[in-house]
Design goal:
Length: 103
C-alpha cells in the first residue's frame, strides 16, 4: 500500500516571472522572492493598500501551490502603477454642436 504524505512542499520562491518587472528607481524584479522582498521594504502604510496586499497574497499562493506566474506579475504591475491615472477609462467628450435659428 502506498502512503501519501500530507506535508506540503516548501515554497518555491526562486521561480521567475515571464518577463522582468521594471522598478522606477532600481533593478528590475525577476523572481517571486525579489518581488516579496520589494513589498516588505515598502512603508507599512503603503503595504496595507489593497493593491499591495493582493499582490503579496498572489505571490504567496503561486510560491506555495504552483501555477502561472503571470497573475502575480499583473498584480505587481497594477500595484506599482496604482496612482497613475487610467486614461483609457475616462471617456473623451466632444462638444455638442449648437445651432441657432436665424430669421
Amino acid at each position: 500500500m502506498l502512503k501519501v504524505s500530507k506535508i506540503a512542499p516548501p515554497p518555491d520562491c526562486s521561480r521567475r516571472f515571464d518577463g522582468p518587472i521594471p522598478i522606477q528607481n532600481g533593478k528590475p524584479l525577476f523572481t517571486l522572492r525579489e518581488a516579496a522582498t520589494f513589498i516588505t521594504m515598502l512603508p507599512k502604510a503603503e503595504q496595507q493598500a489593497t493593491s499591495w496586499r493582493t499582490a503579496a497574497e498572489l505571490l504567496m499562493m503561486v510560491a506555495e501551490r504552483g501555477g502561472d506566474t503571470m497573475v502575480p506579475r499583473i498584480a505587481m504591475m497594477k500595484a506599482l502603477h496604482h496612482r497613475e491615472p487610467e486614461s483609457w477609462t475616462t471617456p473623451r467628450r466632444r462638444r455638442a454642436k449648437t445651432y441657432s435659428i436665424i430669421r
